[in-house]
Amino acid sequence: MTALLRYQSALLLRSQRWLAPAVLYAAFLAVGVQSGQPVLDSLAYAAAALLPVAAWLVRICVTNEPPAARGCTAAAAGPRRAHLACLLTALLAVTLLGVAAVAVVAGISDAASTDHRTAVARGPAAGAGLLAMLVSALLGTAVGALTTWPLLRSPGRAVPALLLAAVLALVTAGSPARAALTELIDGSRDGVVPVPLGAVAGAVAAAALAVAVSCGVCSRRG
Hints:
Blueprint: H1 2-15, H2 19-32, H3 39-62, H4 67-77, H5 79-108, H6 122-146, H7 155-171, H8 176-190, H9 197-221
């Protein structure tokens, strides 16, 4: 897997296809996060915007190789392992993007509650933001895995499905992403830093199931 991850990471970097989601995410942060805003509210916004970016990066990694090259990789390492490397590469890339976002957002935001009356510790707030980013990265990976090759081969179906699933993952009751974001927003209102471990556990389970389904289908179709 180490060699496959290095190969997929190099392929992603050299393709420069990661620039579009990264620049779009930076634009979202530039518009939605302003200096002096409550730190937990700003981190919630940044985490929400990361989920569709994660799904987009999964689609990029899965479709980066031409079919012939993908066939060679699958023949050498096995279709399941080759596909898993694509998904893990996307997850690692979006996690790094989320960590960078937390550092920037926590640094420029006001360490206070929504009404700016209660102090909020910046370090624990950044930790809560990292957990929320992880939830979004995992759920975005799950969304991307279920809305691209090999489950959905046609871009005409895959792209709308990806967008719809990303929105539903953010707004549906019971979604780990919605739970993590709600905890951050409520914590900002009350001046208390949350620890959304339940949301992280749910996101891990959802991502593991989605990756297993995607890799299983890939091994049968590969």
